[in-house]
Design brief:
The complex is a heterodimer of chains A (about 700) and B (about 55). By secondary structure, chain A is mainly α. Chain A is built from 27 helices and no strands. In chain A, helix 8 packs antiparallel against helix 27, helix 12 runs antiparallel to helix 23 and helix 21 packs antiparallel against helix 22. Chain A is globular. Chain B is flat and about 30 Å long. Classes of the chains: A mainly alpha (about 700), B mainly alpha (about 55).
């Protein structure tokens, strides 16, 4: 009887999803509600979890609820703690969700919301959630060891080192692209710059409070910090309104770049309790709160989609980023569909907290479904604003011009009719001088969120507040990622340099610390600077590099999972990981190849380099460069980007080679060869 | 419910349950003195940010 009830429930979920999908697909009018996207997505998640996530758990991996997890075996109350599954779900989600799922879908919306939505859903179900879950499982059966370690033990030392080297390069690109999003959002925005700058003294105040006044009381000081943040946003409005104050907080992209580089260096050298940790508390709670608020806002306001399901830019000529849907759509939306970086989290803190293997699917597969939902909400936020405003915000100045009149004319010609007045009015509504060419996703998302949240709370008069709230919320956790990442990069570098000069390994000594931090900041600072001065606005260069890198790491993680399945002699189920691996390899290798060799300068690095070289020879000046020296710099930048892209391809191809070799070796043997820790039974009554 | 929410919020920023730590120390290492909450908090803060990164993009 219960079985029948359960089946009826699942049929209802499936029907709801099918109806929502049919409504989206068949509706040719203009009134597709965002709710239908949400219903279609949520129904997909439930069905996928129940019928694919649990299939992987029970059949492919055959999880064992009687097996002792590392949390019990090594329980120390610190790193290894058996944790309630809901509490761990929160921890895991907070660790995997960042700026990625919020930005990619916004950029992908130039092709319409349908292609992005389809990839987010298909990608998460078949690739992203599978990867997160399986890496969590594999790591938890190996004492919670890290991805690099897992590759070393299962594939060999050389592929392990290659993967670690790749992970370092990926981090450099991630930091550069994240910092660039902040620069693009704050350029010429005194309100935004003031509020973000104000987070530094607020965080330091919280840090001192937590250290000396009432140690460890995170809750109360976070509430105080939150109130101060809101005050900073309100004060920011006053700053922007005053001519003298606003001049003090108005900076262009290059100035902000140097400030961020300086900030990154100082923040990574300071003790963690002073700035990094308190700001992380604030940004984590704000992140969870804002995501929840956005979900409630979408359900409550039920806005209609303004962006068409498909735009004419599906042919690859779009202004936001260049290239055809295959492979570039699948590179643009990385986090939200599949993200290699999650493999580092799934083999980081989470496996050490897992109380029972039975819950691994819920944490790994389910956690990624939630991140995918965040991506869907970002897509909705970008699609409920006027498409004309969307393109004005996301197209580079070289394409649409610098003024509202020029931009409105160009964009109207594309078929997204808009008047200069609407562009000016939108800027006034959100309290900015201009919204034109604010690439990078964050400002667009902020306008979308302001649109949705002000619909529920405060009306149009509150739009400027909500816009700056959204900018602050993104900048806050991006800055946290920048200084946590710089710190992590510094340790990696010291480790690496220490193999040649042992004294550099001392992480507690000032000179090696400053040297490694400086190098690390220099690496990402270089890419950030070149992105800011890039002829096509930076996002066009850096975001695909980031996407390629991130998806390649995912391919590496899935190759590891495939090897482990072969070594466990469960190769009959290996299609579960081979399928997404092949797809990711096809996307990333094609994209990597095209980014290097494509004949169009807007896509291929080498073509762009030769365009500038030719202009130098014939004595022409190509914008935005203002001198021959700057043009030579652009040429060099393009060669470095092409080289980096080639390096990423080398990393993934070599891991593929070692992976295939390991699979063949395991297949030829008739016994298990994986390096799992030996089975120990979970003690009687061990539960949380 | 409230207890779990509090725990979840702390776990999100890398602070496990202090009570559980103390109980673990009492049961398995009765000869050692457990850290005070203050020491425990600092130890966890350093562990979270001192070494590698525990965050995503």
């Amino acid at each position: 009887m219960n079985k029948l009830k359960e089946s009826i429930g699942w049929i209802a979920v499936a029907l709801a999803g099918a109806i929502a999908f049919a409504y989206i697909a068949l509706n040719r009018g203009e009134n597709v509600s965002a709710i239908s996207l949400v219903v279609a997505a949520v129904a997909t998640y439930f069905i996928a979890y129940r019928y694919y996530g649990l299939y992987i758990a029970n059949k492919v991996l055959s999880v064992d609820p009687t097996r002792m997890t590392p949390a019990w075996k090594h329980n120390d109350g610190l790193d290894y703690v058996p944790t309630n599954k809901w509490v761990l779900y929160g921890h895991h989600f907070a660790a995997i969700a960042g700026a990625g799922p919020l930005v990619g879908p916004v950029l992908a919306a130039q092709m319409g919301y349908l292609p992005g939505m389809m990839w987010i859903l298909a990608g998460v179900v078949l690739a992203g959630a599978v990867q997160d879950f399986m890496v969590l499982f594999i790591s938890s059966r190996r004492d919670g060891r890290s991805l690099g370690d897992l590759i070393k033990t299962e594939l060999g030392v050389i592929p392990g080192v290659i993967a670690l080297f790749g992970a370092f390069l990926i981090m450099v690109i991630i930091l550069a692209v994240l910092a660039m999003i902040v620069v693009k959002a704050l350029a010429d925005s005194p309100w935004g710059t003031f509020t973000v700058a104000a987070t530094i003294p607020i965080a330091i105040f919280m840090g001192i409070y937590l250290r000396y006044i009432r140690p460890g009381k995170i809750g109360e000081i976070s509430i105080v910090g939150f109130i101060l943040l809101i005050a900073a946003i309100l004060l920011g409005g006053q700053v922007a309104a005053s001519p003298t104050w606003s001049a003090m907080f108005t900076f262009d992209g290059k100035q902000l770049t140097w400030m961020l580089i300086g900030y990154g260096f100082v923040a990574a050298v300071l003790p963690v309790w002073l700035l990094l940790a308190p700001r992380d508390y604030l940004s984590t709670f704000l992140k969870i709160g804002t995501i929840t608020g956005l979900a409630v806002g979408i359900l409550f306001v039920a806005p209609n989609m303004q962006m068409p399901p498909l735009t004419k830019f599906i042919d690859g000529t779009g202004p936001v980023w260049s290239g055809s849907p295959f492979p570039f759509l699948f590179i643009t939306i990385a986090c939200g569909a599949v993200s290699g970086f999650h493999a580092l989290i799934s083999s980081g803190t989470s496996p050490k907290l897992l109380d029972n293997e039975r819950n691994a699917a819920f944490i790994g597969y389910g956690g990624m479904l939630m991140e995918s939902f965040v991506a869907i909400m970002a897509l909705v936020a970008a699609s409920v604003i006027d498409p004309g405003v969307y393109f004005a915000m996301n197209s580079p100045g070289a394409v649409i011009g610098k003024t509202a009149v020029e931009a409105a004319q160009v964009i109207s010609q594309w078929g997204f009719v808009i008047t200069p007045d609407v562009l000016l009015q939108t800027a006034t509504d959100v309290g900015e001088k201009s919204i034109i060419s604010r690439a990078g996703g964050a400002p667009t998302l902020a306008v979308g969120m302001a649109h949705i949240i002000s619909g529920a709370l405060g009306g149009k008069g509150m739009m400027a507040f909500w816009y700056h709230f959204a900018i602050l919320f993104e900048a806050l956790f991006i800055l946290t990622a920048v200084d946590a990442g710089t710190r992590a990069g510094r340790f990696m570098l010291q480790d690496l340099l220490g193999t040649f000069i042992p004294s550099l390994k001392r992480t507690d000594k000032l000179v090696p610390n400053l040297l490694a931090t400086g190098l690390c900041v220099m690496f990402w600072g270089y890419f950030l600077y070149q992105g800011v001065v890039d002829p096509l606005g930076g996002i066009n260069t850096l975001w695909p590099l980031f996407g390629v890198a991130n998806q390649m790491l995912a391919a590496v993680a899935l190759i590891l999972c495939t090897v482990v399945l072969f070594k466990m002699k469960r190769e009959r189920y290996a299609w579960v990981t081979i399928l997404p691996t092949c797809w990711l390899l096809a996307c990333t290798l094609t994209a990597g190849w095209q980014k290097i060799f494509h004949a169009k300068p807007s896509i291929g690095f080498l073509a762009q380099a030769s365009r500038y070289s030719k202009a130098i020879e014939s004595g022409q000046l190509l914008a935005p460069a203002k001198s021959v020296a700057q043009m030579q710099q652009v040429v060099l930048n393009q060669y470095i980007d092409a080289g980096l892209c080639a390096l990423f391809m080398f990393v993934v191809i070599s891991i593929l080679f070692f992976g295939v070799r390991a699979c063949m070796k395991a297949y030829a043997l008739n016994h298990r060869t994986d390096k799992e820790t030996t089975f120990e039974a979970l003690p009687e009554g061990a539960s949380v | 419910m409230g207890k779990y929410l509090g725990q979840a919020a702390k776990m999100m920023v890398g602070q496990p349950d202090y009570e559980a730590y103390v109980q673990h120390m009492r049961l398995t290492h009765p000869e050692r003195t457990p850290m005070t909450y203050e020491e425990f908090f600092r130890e966890r803060e350093n562990a979270r940010y001192g070494g590698g990164s525990g965050k995503c993009c």
